[in-house]
């Protein structure tokens, strides 16, 4: 429904939708603004990657709806989620759309916001700490370092990315910056490693995988580009994980001892 339709049907919005970033998992990394909204929300529609500790912050009187979209488990398709947000905003004052990490970083927050604006629904974004920054940090990996890296690229490893836009240009990514951070990269890791190798990255390039970053059950797998696929198979390492590639990964050895404790 567009703004005109919404108005002509006389279904004025009572409320506002807040696209809130829940951060990567550790509840201590939730923003004060986001927490305040969860505490006074009338409805919260949340994603699968939002941690239980964050869900526990939600106003007990609020309606909670799981819109989880983990691989192969589509609870609600994207259009249904957006439609639901529009309907809830016509009924309630504070509607929170809670997303893992940051809503505007590989979270489809931009798409949802666009559709809400088109439907005439007031909407605001509340940024969160993205897993691509927090998971490496909790593994003792700074993304930049004056000696090792002065640039970072955030890229999706999800195969569907090419459906909507030209495919990820791994050749350009390989040479575009000194640190590469890949979201949704585990499933496609053999292909990604192959592409980066063809692009000329050395087999010795350090690589780290951080699973369930910032949570109490965070796991890490550290290796080299030439051996990581085999290591993943051996360890049975799975999603959700962030992949970090570049010399900064070597800092892990020294800094991982100072790992923050999840709150
Ligand atoms: N908007 C989110 C990303 C959504 S895409 C953000 O800003 O973090 C989903 C991908 O994010 C997962 O496949 C995984 O690569 C990454 N991810 C999300 N939470 C994570 C966590 N706690 N630890 C490691 N990776 C995570």
UniProtKB/TrEMBL annotation:
Cited CDD domains: SUMT
Highest taxon of source: Bacteria
Biological-process GO terms, alphabetical: methylation; siroheme biosynthetic process
Protein's pathway: Porphyrin-containing compound metabolism
First-level EC class: transferase
Start and end residues of each Tetrapyrrole methylase domain: 16-228
EC nos: 2.1.1.107
PROSITE patterns per the UniProt record, alphabetical: SUMT_1 (PS00839), SUMT_2 (PS00840)
InterPro entries named in the record: 4pyrrol_Mease, 4pyrrol_Methylase_sf, 4pyrrole_Mease_sub1, 4pyrrole_Mease_sub2, CobA/CysG_C, Siro_Cobalamin_biosynth, Uropor_MeTrfase_CS
Pfam families for the chain: TP_methylase
Keyword tags: Methyltransferase, Porphyrin biosynthesis, S-adenosyl-L-methionine, Transferase
GO molecular function: uroporphyrin-III C-methyltransferase activity
The protein's role, per its UniProt record: It is a step in the biosynthesis of both cobalamin (vitamin B12) and siroheme.
Family from the record: Belongs to the precorrin methyltransferase family.
The protein, known as: uroporphyrinogen-III C-methyltransferase
Species whose genome carries this gene: Chlorogloeopsis fritschii PCC 6912
Gene name linked to the record: cobA
């Amino acid at each position: 429904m567009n703004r005109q339709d919404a108005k002509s049907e006389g279904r004025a919005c009572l409320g506002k939708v807040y696209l809130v970033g829940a951060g990567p998992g550790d509840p201590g990394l939730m923003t004060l603004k986001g927490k305040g909204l969860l505490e006074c929300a009338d409805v919260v529609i949340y994603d699968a990657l939002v941690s239980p500790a964050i869900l526990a912050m939600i106003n007990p009187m609020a309606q909670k709806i799981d819109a989880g979209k983990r691989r192969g488990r589509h609870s609600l398709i994207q259009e249904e989620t957006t439609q639901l947000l529009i309907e809830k905003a016509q009924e309630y004052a504070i509607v929170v759309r809670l997303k893992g990490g940051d809503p505007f970083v590989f979270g489809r927050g931009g798409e949802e916001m666009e559709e809400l604006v088109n439907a005439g629904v007031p909407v605001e974004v509340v940024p969160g700490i993205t897993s691509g920054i927090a998971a490496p940090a909790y593994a003792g990996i700074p993304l930049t370092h004056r000696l090792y890296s002065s640039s970072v690229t955030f890229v999706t490893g999800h195969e569907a990315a090419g459906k909507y836009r030209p495919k990820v240009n791994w050749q350009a990514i390989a040479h575009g910056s000194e640190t590469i951070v890949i979201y949704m990269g585990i499933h496609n890791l053999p292909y990604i490693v192959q592409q980066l190798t063809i692009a000329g990255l050395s087999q010795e390039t350090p690589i780290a995988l951080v699973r369930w970053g910032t949570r109490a059950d965070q796991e890490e797998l550290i290796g080299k580009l030439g051996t990581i696929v085999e290591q993943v198979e051996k360890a049975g390492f799975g999603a959700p994980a962030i992949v970090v590639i570049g010399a900064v990964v070597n800092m892990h050895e020294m800094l991982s001892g100072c790992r923050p404790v999840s709150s």
